[in-house]
Amino acid sequence: MKLKPTGKILGARVEDLDISVPLSEQDRSEVMSALGHYGVLEFPEQTLSPQALRDFSAQFGELFISPGGRAQEPGFPEIMNLSNIVRDGQPLGLSDAGQSWHTDMSYMPMIAFSNVLYALTIPFRDGRPLGATQFRNMHAVCEALPPEIKARLNGRRGIHDFEKFWDMMRREKGSSRPALSEAERRARPPVSQPLIFPHPITGREVLYANPGYLTGIEGLPQKEAEELMDWLFEFQERDEFLFEFHWSPRSVLMWDNIGTTHNAVADYGLQEPRHIKRCQVMATEFYSSAGTGIPVQALT
Q1: What is the pLDDT of residues 20-65, one digit of tens each?
Q2: Sign of torsion, CA 95 97 100 106?
Q3: Could you give the number of structural domains in the chain?
Q4: What gap in Å lies between CA 227 and CA 222, rounded to an integer?
């Protein structure tokens, strides 16, 4: 296993590691540490069956199964298909084109630790890969906050709502996402999470406030909360926090949902096929289960 950092604000490439077989405990530990410190890891030139993708992901925590069941891999409900491909009149998966900045699963009582994505088909135009995934380093964002803003955030909790992001995605051109069912709404009620807390691997504070799901701040009038959230979202847009990953077929991308936000770049069309398989790893490796919000007691 060789680790090659990008030298940028985020990212490292993991070479000479076959993730289609179970990792040794040493390799698993090194991947976990690297993920916390570099935020985004690429494992190039992998060949994974659905079972191998699921089993690799499950070595890092409990896997989430969507209650909607849309676009699940047959026989593997832990795997979601992300694709703009239509076969026999049916979408192969959920389209992730046109997303905006967010942190997956911030709306859940047990938050997500990591995403694991396996690229099968990547669109190219003029020899250049399309559909990049962008990231922002929320360790760096938190450290750069003005003291007066950080003082306003410390000890407060943000309100995260799944429906905000889903409805925004439905408004995107070409979206195949239907409205949420009542059962899906009940399965994902709004939750509150600390706005600032220590990362379970690095120990450094992160800002846990993303534009996709954050809808309010407990203890603040909505107008004041919206003004503060708008300021935070604009502050995160600074180029110094940005890292952009360009996909290759057979690459596996693993990123830390606690220390980053991400965005899918929609620069490809419906006739430029894209297909990626995804597993969502929850933060059960680090936290015990609690009512709502990030559990306060780490397990490691």
Answers
A1: 999 999 999 999 999 999 999 999 999 999 999 999 999 999 999 9
A2: positive
A3: 1
A4: 9
